[in-house]
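name: query_chain
kind: protein
chains: 1
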Amino acid sequence: MDAKLTLKLDKHVIEKAKEYASSHKRSLSRLIESYLKTLIDKEKPDSDIDIEISAFVKSMRTGVKVPSDFDYKSGYGDYLTEVSE
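structure:
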């Protein structure tokens, strides 16, 4: 259910926000609503989000542990060099 909200903002900010919303084919109200939803969602603990992983995706596990600082671009470049030799 939608409800009305009155905000006091800098005139320049309102004008720029309206231009931005228009250029993205959205209303300013929906733009602000989306922004507020992202703020609220950030506050939710991760335990509230239940994502079920399908059996197919689970079957793709390899058990390989990749270091958190692994440089994928460099690794892929090394792979390409090995394959081309």
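note: The CA atoms of residues 16 and 28 lie 10 Å apart.
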